[in-house]
Structures are given as C-alpha cells and as structure tokens.
Protein 1
Amino acid sequence: MSLTNLTLKAAIDGLAAREFTSVELTRAHIEAIEAARGLNAYILETPDKAIDMAAKSDARRALGEAGPLEGAPLGVKDLFCTNGVRTTACSKILENFVPTYESTVTSQLWRDGAVMLGKLNLDQFAMGSSNETSYFGPVTNPWRAQGSTKALTPGGSSGGSAAAVAADLCLGATATDTGGSIRQPAAFTGTVGIKPTYGRCSRWGVVAFASSLDQAGPIAKTVEDAALLLTSMSGHDPKDSTSLDIPVPDFTQFVGKSVKGLKIGIPKEYRVDNMPAEIEKLWQDGIAWLKEAGCEIVDISLPHTKYALPAYYIVAPAEASSNLARYDGMRYGLREEGANLTEIYENTRASGFGDEVKRRILIGTYVLSAGYYDAYYLKALKVRRRIAEDFDNAWTQCDAILTPTAPSAAFGLGENSNDPIAMYLNDVFTVTTNLAGLPGLSLPAGLDANGLPLGLQIIGKPLDEATVFSVAGAVEKAAGFTAKAEKWW
Amino acid sequence: MNENTKVIKGRTGDWEMVLGLEVHAQVASKSKLFSGAAVGFGAGPNEQVSLVDAAMPGMLPVLNRFCVEQAVKTGLGLRAQINLKSRFDRKNYFYPDLPQGYQISQFDQPIVGEGVVSVERDDGTTFDVRIERLHLEQDAGKSLHDQDPNATYVDLNRAGTALMEIVSKPDMRTSEEAAAYVKKLRTILVYLGTCDGDMEKGNLRADVNVSVCRPGDYEKFRATGDFKHLGTRCEIKNVNSYRYIQQAIEYEARRQIEILEDGGKVDQETRLFDPTKGETRSMRSKEEAHDYRYFPDPDLLPLVLDPAWVKSIEETLPELPDAKKARLQSQYGLSAYDAGVLIIDADRADYFEAAAKGRDAKLVANWVTNELLAKLSAAGTEFTNSPLPHTDIAQLVELIENGTISSKIAKEVFEHMWAGEGRPAEIVEKRGLVQINDTGAIEKAIDDLIAGNPDKAEAVKDKPQALGWFVGQVMKATGGKANPGTVNELLRKKLGVE
C-alpha cells in the first residue's frame, strides 16, 4: 500500500509509530501530485516548502513536540492567503499576488504540525459549482462513469480540494463554503466535507466572496479525518469580528459515538422535482441506517426552502459586488492602463474578472441600487430570516437533519457552463445552511448506476458539530463506502 | 420672527437664508476606527497604513472600542440620545484614496440620535441648534494631484481614521450663526477630549447646506417640519475655517437669490468653495450623484452598548462649557461676557480659577481676559503654555488689592513680568514702584502745586472738572506712584471741591 492511500488518521498514527517520516510521506505525495497534473487540482505546487516543513516536523517529533497534525501533508484552497506563496483566488486579477500574511485557518494547521503541499484550484473567487470558472482552467474529477472516459466536474467551488483528496494528492485539504462549495464537491468526489457553524473558523486572510455566508472547513477522506482537521482549523480569532468566542471541543471524540435516541429530521421540501431516483433511494438508505443505529426519524417541514436559492443568489452577489470592489488595479494585482481613472478601472476589471464573477458583480450591484434595494436585497434578508426560523422550529422536533447533498452526481465538464440557472441549482440543498449559519456535512454514501459517488448531508444545530460528526460517523459505518476512483491519470 | 434673521434685500423682495451643517470631526484616538494602525500628523506618506487600511485580500475590520467610547462621550456632551443598538453600513464608490471601494459608515442606525447645542452669538445672546444625529465612519486617504503632471499620488495614512459626522438640523439663519455654532461645537469637543479641533489640519471640517426662502417660510417649516416650505439646498463640501464658512454661505445665498430672481430654479447639488476666489462652484449635480448602495457591513456585527458602560462614561464627563459658564458667573460674580471668554477653552478657565483663589475674582478675570489673553494671542500661544504662572497673576492682583501698587502701575509691572523680569513683588521692589500712601509726601506735592498755580487753584472751585489737571500734575510729581485715591481725596479737601 502506498503512503498516499492512508487516511489522515492512519498517517498520523504511522508517523507517531515511527513507521515512516513526514519527509517520506510528503515526498510520496509530491510524486503523486506530479503524476496527476492532468487533473489540474493544484495550480501551484510548493514541493521545496513542503519538504522543508516536513523535515522540521520530523525534527519536532524527534524532540517529542508533535502537534495533533504533526507531519501531515495537506493541500490549501487558493482562496486562503499564504505568506510568501502566491494566492490568486484563481483569478487573473490576482494572478501574481503574493501575500505577506498567512490566513488564521492555515496558520493554525501549521501550528499543529501540518505540511503544505501547494495551492488548490477553485472556481474564480469561489463563484461556481463546477470549477470551470477558474482562470487556470477546470479541475477534472478523478471519478469517471463506468466504461466512459468523459471528463467530469469535481464540483465547485472547492473542486481542486475535493479532487486532490479523492485522488490521494494530499491527506486532507482546506476548503470554503458560501453556498455549498465544500459539500457539493465532496459529494461529487466521494469525499467528506464539512462547513461548520458560521463563526467557527476565522475568515481572516481568506479572500472574501460573501462575508455573511463564507465559512472555511476541511475536505477529507473520512469523517474522523474531517473532525481532526476541523478541530485544528476552528477557534476564536479577534481579527474577525464575526468569529465566535466559544471553546472548540476535540471533534474526533464524537465520531463513533452512539446515535441511539437521536431524532433525525427529514424535511419534505428537499424532495425536489426531477431528482434522480438513485438519490431518493440513497436518502432512504440513510434513513434506514440511522433507524437501525437507534435514531428516531421525524418528518419535518422547512417551508421556506424554495425561496432559499433565489435569496442566496441576491445576498451573495450583493456582498460580493462590494467585497470585490477592492480589486481596482491601484495597489496590487492586475492593472490595465487607460486614458483616465475610469478607463483604468474599466480596463482592469474587464480584463481581470471572468464572466461568472462579472455576472455576480452586476447582479449584486443591481440588487443594492436605489429603487431595487427593498424589492430584492431587503426582501432576500427577510427570506433569510424566515429560513433561519424554519430551522429554529425544526430543532424543537429533531437533533439533526438528513438530506441529499446535491441533486445529481458529477456532471460532464461543459455540460452546464452556458446555463447559469442550471448551475445554480446545484446549491439547492446546501445554501439553506449558509443562510442560517448552520453546520452541514457531506459524506459519500453510495454509488449511482454509473459508479459515481453520491453524498448525504447532515445538518446540525448552531455550534452542534458534535452531533453532526456522531451522525455522520454512524452513516459512514453503515454505508461502508470504500470505493475509490480508479486511477487513470 | 427671529429678530436675528438677516434679511437679504433682493430686486423682487426680501430673502432669508436657512443653514444646516454636517461637521466632520476626527476622533482623538491613537489608532484607527477598524485597524490597529497608528493615527498621527506628520508621518511620511503611507507610513501609517495597515493591511486592513490598504484593503488587502482577506483583511477584516475590527471596531476600535475607544473610538466608540469617544462617540458616546460626544453624544452625551451634545445632550443627545445614545442609541444602544447601532449598525455599520458600507457606502460603496470607487476612488483611489478609498482602498476598500467602500467607506464603512452608519446609515440608518447611527450611534447617537437627537441632541441640542446652545450657541452664543457675538452680542452675548444665545440660540439652540438641534442635532439630528452623530455617526461614526472611516475617513478616506488623500489624493495628491500636484506631485506629478501625469499621475496622482495616494497617501493612505488618513485612510481608516475615525470620524464623527455631526449633523445639525437647519437651525441657523445667518452665516455668523453658522460660524458660532461650529465654534461652540468645537469647544464642546475639545472639552470632552474627543477631537483636537484642529481645523488647519482638517481634523474638524464642515459641509454647509444653504438654501434661501421668503420671510415667513422658515416659521412655517418649523411649525410643520415640512421641507417644502424651504428652498432647494446646495451642499458646500469640506469648508475648514470659520471665515471660509461665512464667506461660502454669503456667496452661496447671493448666488441662489440671483438665480431665483432671474426666474430660474436652484439645482440641488454639491458644491466646492474656492477660498482664493471667494466663490462656490458646482462639483456634481443631483443627477450625477453617486448611488452609494448602502447595505449593512457583513464583516461587522451590530454595535450593542451596555447601558452600564454608557452610564460609566457619563459619570466621567468633564464640566462642559455651558455649565462652567453658569458656575463662573454665580460662583465668582463674573459678567456673562467675561465668563464666556474664559470658557472658550477649559485651560483658560482653569487658569482663571487657580489665580482667583482668595483674590478679587472680577479683578483676576479682568487681568486674565484682557492683558494676559492679549499677550498670549499676540505670541500665538494659549494658557497651557503661558510663560506667566497663575500665581503671578494672583500676586499682581494681591498687590493691587492691598494698595501696594495702583492699577496703572500694575500695568507697568505686568509688562516687566511678561519681559521675564521676575515675580510681581520682586519687580515692584526692584523698580521702586511701591505706591506712595504717605499722606505727608502727597500733601507736600499738592501744596507745592497750589502755591505754584494760584489762578488755577482758584478757577477749579467753579469748574470741578479741571481737577483732573491737578491729579495729573501730582502723579507726575510723584513719579506715578502716589495712591490715586489719596491724591483725589486730599486735592478735593485742599481745593475746596465737593
């Protein structure tokens, strides 16, 4: 067995048992990355830095100073600013941007001993559901339909993170989720991803898309690995005013914990039109597994669900239109010259942003404009409040909610790229938790008829990642999902 | 009708002006509103800029608690409502000196609500200006257009500095009132220590809203609150001296009247005052006005204040100008005018109070507000830096009180004090300026004078006003040191003048 096939937990155990060194483990990953360039998961490989960090990690371990992630090589979504390492948000406008600072989340991973392998591809500024809006080109999903060589999307926006984990190009990866950008790619690639409660992870040093929705989280090979990573990534940061000053438990202790007696809500509104039968079946399997594990299944209603997607596609672009105003060619990043100030702005932003980013900036600018604000933005905020209340009501009946993660399995690259609405529909099951600030986890629970992975989502109460991990652990155990993408790259 | 309203004569009849001000006061704070970067005047370009101020990717604002405290303190000083819940919003527009592409401000939920400022006119009468609101916001950086013919330079040192925008209601009716309001506001802010009030550095500057109307219209507005009774207003941006405020208003009111009298209509617009030409000119019209797309800043939580914290700030408020003035009048028997001069800054009043301890307070007030103030002003300094300590003024007054020197001699002594010759008693001693109270010496001088001028001594009996000549001669003969009271008394007796 190759070192890259290990789970994060197994690798850390192996390092602790001196079965191999971090340098060996890291080198194995660097080789795997080099061999997998066709997937386009990494847009920047940092092998020298990785080996250097690994050697230092081995030295720390030799001194008995091992942190919880000591020696584990990870990938970093290129939305996290990394000190001295180019950070682009997969845009042209930040193509050559090198931060002088390290995001809080990644600095906590390095604090705990992890090793950085490089920067991972994503949809430009995290805007997309297929990784196709990346300035560096799309990521190809390591998974293919049985008997097909058609290139599939790994989902988005954290497509690079999900593909890298699925193809064993890292032991785990950082990701971010504004409307489903951790969970949908996790579902498309047979990996585990969790978006924690809004405020669990600091947003400081993460290139902003929509501030009130953005949350960092991990993509990992197992529920336990995700718990390990999230424990390290979470925590109060005084540099982020929306960061919660609440203790972070060791999330791994909840994985494998009995779920007996827990009430699991099944929201009827998540049974959408045209949902593939296989996804409906998977959902039923999940219900059956949890029943067997001793959970009580409760039918619940989240009546405003149908308004979530439209509300999301008003709030997120509105915030984005303002957050992205700083990319103006004045202080850093791309600058295209012009005859006057307005032309410099126009040329820089026309050239520096891709179509999807421009679309969202325009939508956002529109919904905040005088005369439209009340009808769109303010209305969307009201809907958001109703959606949060739906969940508040649900929590009087259940402890966690089980839904499918995405309405389909991975689709072909190019299939939806000319139809923004079809693309936005990918987020239909995931945006609600962003709007309500709740934790949501996706884990692989089965394959469809084409042999492609499908995910189930577990939604928890605010700050109750513990229950989410317990339920996910139970589903993982019952599903016994062990399939891996067959290596073709 | 307010008798202080100034009527402006036009070709078609009388006009009046209506003025409202938005004053931007830089919060006195060592660091910026949302970043830890230092605030200070005189640093090199872009030396006081943090990653947050430069709006680097992924940077987030964190509210400076001290700036909030300063705003609350100011609100309390303006006798205004403190809003326990307020919110920060983004005001979106593009400009090179605005790195984020938006200014963090407070739109519809400001930290401070309605209040009132009592303002003194030059003639000593007072009027109230109602405060509409006070909100916190970030300042922008500075664009320097004069460094290079083909480029604009940007200095971000000021970017992110905390400002308080204090918005008045349209309660001022003359340019003098507007200037007096800004003066009073500045005094209050400086008392509170919430703004240094330095207008030259732009730390206090005003946007002036000017409109004109016919006599009677303003009263209708005040009765109904309906702005339709008032004329269309123009906003003159960033005026940073009392004189410019007055000039800008006078010019602008005239300009609007001329338009209206020519049958035109005033366009609502933003204008700039050009101090070299004494004119206002159009900056942008209402049609060109930005759509700022205000929305709540999602990087910041709503600002919720603990009432106990607000109360603790209230308890530490210093004595404010109005209260101090009233106390100086009642405690020391000062005139409203003297008290008004003394309270212009707290140091002045403190100086007075220290010097007046155990002395004739009115006399001390005279010396402080006249001689000393004149000297300090001429030297371009203030009471905190006075070369003469309050104990010197106290001693000088004591010497007058106990008859050692006359008031006239005291002025001479004061000149020597200012010249650095020592304490008043030493100067009097050294220069032999002690008043002659010895009746014998004075009598001798008077007798000599009468003997030498018998005709004048005779004439004065019918013309008592000629007594002054004798007084002058006696003073001259005694080198000005004779006690004037004694001289007068003895002269009257000897000359038989009642």
Protein 2
Amino acid sequence: MPIDRSMNVLIVDDYKTMLRIIRNLLKQIEFNNVEEASDGTEALSKLRSGHYGLVISDWNMAPMTGLQLLQEVRADVRLRQIPFIMITAESKTENVVAAKQAGVSNYIVKPFNAETLKGKIEKVLGHA
Amino acid sequence: MRDRTGRPALTKPASTLGPIHEQLERARRHHAPVDRGMMAEVVRAVLTTMSGDLSATETSLLHEVEALGRAISAAKQEIASLRVADIKQRDIPFATDELDAIVRHTADATHAILESCEMLDAVAATVAADAGAKLQDAVTKIYEACSFQDITGQRITKVVATLKVIEAKVARMVTTFGAHGGTIDIPAADHVPIADELLNGPQLPSNAMDQSDIDKLLASLG
C-alpha cells in the first residue's frame, strides 16, 4: 500500500529556520499538510486537539523537551501509535538509548540530508 | 629525649623560642589578621631556631613548605588583582551580546536564502521536467546546508553557558581568597541549570556519532 502523503505531519523545533527547512524538504517529497510547534508543550496541545500521522521533533527545547514530548505521546492512549522521529544534534549513545527506551520510532542526527529524512519517514510509515 | 618513633625529639630551650613568642604576642596585640610578611617572618624565625635540630632532608622539606607558602601568597595576590567587576559587568555581557548578534544575523541571512530557495522551488515546478529536477536537486542541497544555522546556534548557546560558569567560578575564587571586600555577587549555583541532564548539544566531529553509528545502535537496541 502506498504511503498516505495527505496525512497531517507535526514538526516540532524551537529554531524557525529548522522548521522551515524540514517543511520544505517534506514538501519536496509531497507531504503538504505540515503543521509546526516550537516546543513540546505546544506540540502536545496540537496533538491532543488534532489528527496527525507523524511527528518529527527536535530534542533540545524548553519548557518541554522532545524526549518529554515523546514520553507524553507514548503515555497517551490516543496518541501512542503515532510514529515519532527525533531529529536532533544530540548524538551521544545515552541520548539514543533514552529515546529508544521512550519509544522513538527513528532517530536522525543533525546535520542531516534530505535522503536520510525521506528514508526514515518511509521506514517508520512501513515502506522501507 | 626520643619521640614515639624513636627519633631524637625536637626540643629547644624556652629561651630560643623567644622570637616566635614575641612575634605572636605582637600579632595578638594588634588584633588584626596576620599579614603575609609577618607570616613569612614567623616561618623564617621557626626555621632559624630549628636549624640545629633538623636533618638536611627535614630542613629542605621545611624550605619547600616555605616556598609553597610564598607561591600561594603570590597566587592570592594575582587572583586579588583580577578585575572581577569588569569580567561580570563588561566582558561577559559583551561576549554574550556579540554571540547573540551572530545567531541573529545568521538566522536572518538563512531566512533570506530559504526565501530564495522557495522561489526557485516554485519555478522548478513550471519548467521542463529535466531542468526542474536539476533545479530542485540544487535547492535541496541548499536546504540541507542551511541547517548549519541550527547547529551553530546550539554551539553558541553552549559557549554562552560556559562563559557564565567561568564568571561564577572566578567570582567564587576571588571571594574565597578574600579579595575585593565582598563587593562581588556570587550566583547561588556554580553551574547553569538545565532542564534535562541529557541535553549535551552538538558534539565536536571527533566525538560525535554519525547517522550510520546511530542506525547501528538503534538496531542493536531492538
């Protein structure tokens, strides 16, 4: 089955530049329904009031970090199935392990390229 | 007379301790902290009165202790001469303002680049497929390169945090050595608190895992 590219994707980052870059890269691979949040709290609020097929989040944000957002998503019965990709500059083993333990679907380290983003999205949406 | 280790005890007739007593008495009369000069004088007096009783090794050791005292004294003077108020009120704010300006300017420049890319992206959809694909490929590479702004921003944030730690440590050190008459505000904590101990920020390339390392690690975690 082909990927449903009309799904809502939520991208979360406190850097407007990064939001804009990810939005444009997603547009190039035909994900046009993209919404933005600048931290975990705003993202959680949007997730609870909408319908999203994918979350792509940074880690290092305040007041709620990407890891805390992931934990909240996985603890919420209505949200826990949403694929969650972490895109972050945090590249230490302890970070990857913590994200995995919290239930991350995939992990991309910054700086990343469009091919990596595309590959990970296809993988978590079941079309690797 | 021998001490508990069997070595000759270091005894001196009370009369030879006179200079030391006099020094101490003088210090007590003044009711002021013993200054470095007086302390050095006392140490010299002690060494002089003991010279007949000590072996060459012990004398040498005592001289080393005296030299160490002088070195500590010199270090205290150097620390006292640090202009902590300047560091706190001028140097650190100047450095952090400059770094903030770098982040702002690179962000503005990156947004301008992205705006042009978005325009090119739109144009790519209107030209022949072959040319459009080439155009979009080039634009994608620019998008990828523009993510530098996020990484440099995070690195600069780390540098600013480090500057604040240095500022706090210098202030604490000066206060510990009693300089500047207590005019320095000491922050409650000597490190910048972070919400999440796992926030390490971007690593230097030599320490960082790349995407393939992370993919292997994820795979190994099941």
